[in-house]
Specification:
The protein has helices spanning about 20-30, 100-110, 130-135, 150-195, 200-220, 225-260, 270-285, 290-300, 300-320, 325-330; strands at about 45, 50-55, 75-85, 85-95, 115-120, 140-145. By secondary structure, the protein is α+β, with helices and mostly antiparallel strands. α5 runs antiparallel to α6. The termini are far apart.
Length: about 325
Amino acid sequence: MLGASPKSRKGAPVKLGSTKEAPAAVAVATGGGNGGKVPAEEVWEVRPGGMLVQKRGGGGGAGDDEPSPNVKPVPTIRVKVKHAGVTHEIYISSEASFGELKKLVAAKTGLHPDDQKVLYKDKERDSKAFLDMAGVKDRSKVVVVEDPEARARRLIEERRNGHLEKAARAVAAVTAGVDKLAPKVAALDASVRKGEKVAENDVVQVTELLMNELLKLDAVVADGDVKAQRRMQVKRVQKYVETLDAVAVKNAVIIRKSSEKAAPKPAPPPQQQQPRHQHHQQQQQQGPTRWEMFDLLSSLPSTSSASSTTTVSSTASSGAPPTNRLDWML
């Protein structure tokens, strides 16, 4: 009969009275399978474009690893990319960014992602923008062209980075070389401070090696952190060279002092004085020589000669033997 309410029976569909009663009715209808539990509160998130959507992975009664039945899976779309007169079909997620699309295009065409300019509906798109927010759908057409300015900037940046890497390797090599020479400098300095003599060749050799490392640093051209490291190593090498110069000066003083202690004091040779002394004694023992006698006779006055003449004549007249003149003079 019309107007009579139908008998309620198990499994019969529930009649929805109004829109306000719909959630409760759905909850009652679906609660039987979940043991009468009401689904957990839905978690919402804001998309980059400002759209409010339900967070993925959320939902009532489903596990963390199971997709929520209330959330639709993200569809994969096919985008037709035209580059250099050739059209490529690329399968990508509808929620991906244009930067991810550039990477897939680079795998197809070989064009670097940074050198690409993506045009959709005659408008250049930023790499951080999303496909679905820009309106890209399945079988949408996108044009990719090469950006000369971006290519030039990338090449300059790569060249700059290459120079920086080369400079960094050069500075690292010099640092390793200076690290090997540092213990030798410390050992030479410690020996000289103790008053010990060191080999001059060792000081000269270590100094030359440090100067070679300094020349290598002068040839390095770098900026930023590499330049700061280069400046620090230059100061370090200069400090070691100054230390070796001080070591050379102290070592020269030690060598001079040791040579003065080892050298004996010079004494007058006795062989030169002894012959003169003996010769003088012999002259005193032998008496005056003939030349001295001649000088002595020549220096006598004339009276002595006259008296000697009379004496000789008197002795001659008396018949006495004549006396020796030299004996008398002596």
